[in-house]
Amino acid sequence: MLLALVAVYLAVLTLWPLGRLLVEALGPGRDGAPLGLLLDQWSSRSTERALMNTLGAGVLSALLSAVIGTAMAFAVRLTDIRGKTAMVFVLMLPILIPPQITALAWIDLVGPSSPILAPLGLAAPYGATNPLYSFGGIVFVMGIENSTLVFLAVRAALAALPRDVVEAARVVGARPVTIVLRVVLPLTLSSILAGLILAFVSAIGNFGVPALLGIPGRVTVLTTLIYQRLNGFGPSVLGEVGALALILVLLAVAALVVRARLAARHAVAIDRSGAGLEPFRLGRARRPAELAVWALLGTISLLPLAALLATSLTPAVGVPLGWDTATLDNYRFALVGNDATRRAFLNSFVLASATAIVCAGLAVPLAYLSVMRRRRFARALDLVADTPYAIPGMALSIGVIMAFLPPLPLLGVSLYNTLWILLAAYLARFLTLALRPVVSGLETIEPALDEAARIVGAGTVRRLWSIVLPAAAPFAGAGALLIFMTAFNELTVSALLWSTGHETLGVVVFFLNYEGNATAAAALAVVTVAVTLALAGLVSMSARRLPAGTVPWRA
Amino acid sequence: MASLTLDRLGKSFGAGRAVDDVSLTVQPGAFLALLGPSGCGKTTLLRLVAGLERPTAGAIRIGERVVCDDRSFVEPEARGLGMVFQSYALWPHMSVAGNVGFGLKVQGLTPAERRRRVAAALETVGLGGYGARRPAELSGGQRQRVALARCLALEPPLILLDEPLANLDAHLRGAMQREFRRIHRESGTTFVYVTHDQSEAMALADRIAVLDRGRLQQIASPTELWRAPANAMVAGFIGGAAMLPVDVVAVEPDGTRRITLAGQVLAVPGLAEPGAGLLALRPADVELLPIEAARASRLPTAVVTDSVYRGDGFVCDLRVEGLADAPLQAVATAALEPGAAVGLRLRGGWVVPASDGG
Ligand SMILES: Nc1ncnc2c1ncn2[C@@H]1O[C@H](COP(=O)(O)OP(=O)(O)O)[C@@H](O)[C@H]1O
Ligand SMILES: [Mg+2]
């Protein structure tokens, strides 16, 4: 019964859209040739250019992410520098701040009217184009954005290294630098690669950064090409953009397959019972090392946010910020002065809460059936639930449009141009964010607790309520908050699915900036980031009672 | 109380057979121990009875009710049994009274009736007054008692226990064994008790079923199991008998077997038919003699390979002359040097067939 419910949910919201995407994208071209759509797209000049940009930006930004992420993970995990909790929190900011806001913050920081660089005389001359509106700018911002993924992968690998591999090297007289380069680095190389691949997958699916930097800079990648085509021509080009999306999906799947292969080949049996690595003492180098880390984190993370905040207080672009000029007008406009933003707050709030509640509620029975009851069908569904988050969000959106543009059977109404289509896409995309913590939570719970309740005669629903839910609730709660934070600011999925009256916050920030109202965009971005950070604080506080690893941004 | 009947029960996990063609009957009110080495399928057998695993062959009857055969399967929720898990499986978010009362609540008893039954069950296991505690606030032995109270409260006709004392220290184990005997007597319920510890099985059960590699080796009373093991596996597992290869020459009218051990002819009780057999000898079955006395009376002889002081004597490892790979143990009153030759006189021993099913 429960399993049937979950199966229907996934079939309607995940398998159906993805199936439609596949079928449409592989359909015949306008001339009826088999696979025509895909081949047409494949051979078109604009696709080729977008594909090259996507691959180039993906690879280069992933390399940048690997360098930053690995260096930071080594610094935090292998040395005795102080203030690690704060460092990790700053490194985790990209998880909490969506790409379009990061891009906005960088635009504000580097642009000619930068409230931080201009007073120092470092900004580009007034009237010049922002240097970030370029291929290099996209690579740079995405590289910083995705370094978190590499950091997390490498940190986990370092945490799993037993201390004796380092101690053995010490005993034979190796110096710390030699140990790091000759022992630790080779042992973590496969994790660095795995993190790099995740960064690549995230980069090729990224919409916020190339949209804000690439559209004004006339650098097109696949996601922005899809967006511009669909925006320009409407649903009549669904097949064509579906083919583009399929190329993205194939790239992502290929990368993830390589990653899975890598993980299987380098799976080393790790003795987790042993103690973890002991950090190296830096001695007199500690203070300079701390300064270096903070200088880097400050530049790549805090400075752009400061610029965003400063811009939001500026009366108009180009006006220098000072005590006399600072104003809250932008906030007034962003919060109450504008119908679209007011609606967007409500829409994003409703969508994010509904998605969080439904997904957390569904994650518990699904995780229960797949982990504690080890039902094979449930395990298969568990995998299906991961797909919409693993593939680029644009591809999911197109599948969702294809599935729900035609009127629904029985009801006879189309979800297109309503809030419901956004909800459908969110429900598909974010389920895994609640499922993963609940699954890992239930894996730590003895199946005998459930079996003991079966023996005394309690039925499935009763056991879910009385035995499983009390154990799973903290994990489901953490998952729900994570979903809320992600969905509240989300742009990639809603960029294709919003309609007038059904805007999301991500879309409104994007358009305020697009229309040139940079100060209002900054104000709205600051407000949404504040909401997310407040929620993150809430999770962190409750996280003390959760097993390590449930919440990603803890040291 | 209910009887339990297993009929050609089997359970395979992939290629491996965890339970293989097991048939046995437990009388109502009996205390049966399922005994065998680790990994022999005891837990799987118990879980099959509980309904937590589906058998791949055979049938199970509890009382008159068929709870599973090729056509039907009664889910564990509907079997109405009690079970004590090896890990206790107490629900950590419920109080002791909540744990014990959960099944009663599921059955729809009124709160007053529930309180009465919970109090009675906790009283029985000696935990009256502990109802408000959380499982985390209890010692291992107390958790064990709560787990038992949780199934007693439901007054099931059959209680399954999976190595309930394995996680307790030796001292507590003895005390809990007495408790289990008392509670079994007072409740009159049928107990099926899994253990890998033969002394625990002997101390508790009125019948013992010995399992090995998923197959039932013997089911008998503790005394019979000790006195007359059915095969080499049982003889080796119960009381740690050494197995010496012998030739069974003849079966005497009184059932005694005439055997040759390393060339010497002896008379020993047992089961084996004429042909190859195995002589099971526990340390207490062997008396050590001076070598000259043994030579004179044509008794088997042996060489001491090691000797360890054990308080009540010296336990000697012996190699019987003429038998290369058959170590034997005996107890000597004085220390013996390795390499010393001794004579052997048998005070007991039991001959079993050389090979069978097992
Ligand atoms: N769920 C399972 N999947 C696969 N093999 C199992 C499973 N449960 C038990 N087994 C195998 O069945 C055999 C018997 O296990 P078990 O009944 O737990 O033994 P015991 O309780 O006597 O130690 C073992 O070889 C074990 O590996
Ligand atoms: Mg077991």
Query: Helix count of chain B, per DSSP?
Result: 9
Count of the separate structural domains of chain A: 2
> Proportion of β residues of chain B?
25-35%
Summed up, the helix count of chain A is 22
Tally of strands of chain A: 0
Task: Tell me briefly what this model is.
By secondary structure, chain A is an all-alpha fold.
Q: What report would you give on this structure?
A:
- The complex is a heterodimer of chains A (555) and B (358).
- With 555 residues, chain A is mainly α.
- Chain A has helices at 2-25, 36-43, 45-78, 84-96, 99-110, 135-160, 163-171, 176-205, 208-214, 222-233, 238-265, 286-313, 329-335, 339-372, 376-390, 393-404, 419-443, 447-455, 460-488, 494-497, 505-514, 518-543.
- Chain A has two domains: 1-23 and 328-546, MetI-like (MetI-like fold); 44-251 and 291-312, MetI-like (MetI-like fold, Orthogonal Bundle).
- Chain A is built from 22 helices and no strands.
- In chain A, helix 13 (329-335) crosses helix 22.
- The longest helix of chain A is centred in the N-terminal third of the chain and has 34 residues, at 45-78.
- The mean pLDDT of chain A is 87.
- With 358 residues, chain B is an alpha+beta fold.
- Chain B is built from nine helices and 20 strands.
- A six-stranded mixed β-sheet of chain B has the order 6-7-8-3-9-10, sandwiched between helices. Chain B has a five-stranded antiparallel β-sheet with strand order 13-12-11-14-20. Chain B has a five-stranded antiparallel β-sheet with strand order 15-19-16-17-18.
- The radius of gyration of chain B is 24 Å and the shape is elongated.
- Chain B starts with a strand and ends in a 5-residue tail after the last strand.
Protein topology:
The complex is a heterodimer of chains A (555) and B (358).
Chain A lengths: L1 H24 L10 H8 L1 H34 L5 H13 L2 H12 L24 H26 L2 H9 L4 H30 L2 H7 L7 H12 L4 H28 L20 H28 L15 H7 L3 H34 L3 H15 L2 H12 L14 H25 L3 H9 L4 H29 L5 H4 L7 H10 L3 H26 L12
Helix pairs in contact in A: 1-11, 1-15, 1-16, 2-11, 3-6, 3-8, 4-6, 4-12, 5-9, 5-12, 5-22, 6-8, 6-9, 7-8, 8-11, 10-11, 11-16, 12-22, 13-22, 14-15, 14-17, 14-19, 14-21, 15-17, 16-17, 17-19, 18-19, 19-22, 21-22
Chain B lengths: L3 E10 L2 E11 L4 E5 L6 H9 L6 E6 L2 E4 L13 E3 L11 H11 L4 H14 L15 H13 L5 E5 L7 H18 L2 E6 L2 H7 L2 E6 L2 E6 L1 H6 L4 H6 L4 E10 L5 E5 L2 E5 L6 E7 L4 E4 L1 H6 L4 E9 L4 E7 L6 E6 L8 E6 L3 E4 L5
Parallel strand pairs in B: 3-8, 3-9, 6-7, 7-8
Antiparallel strand pairs in B: 1-2, 1-4, 4-5, 9-10, 11-12, 11-14, 12-13, 14-20, 15-19, 16-17, 16-19, 17-18
Bound molecules: adenosine-5'-diphosphate (ADP) and magnesium ion.
The site of magnesium ion has 2 residues of chain B, from helix 1.
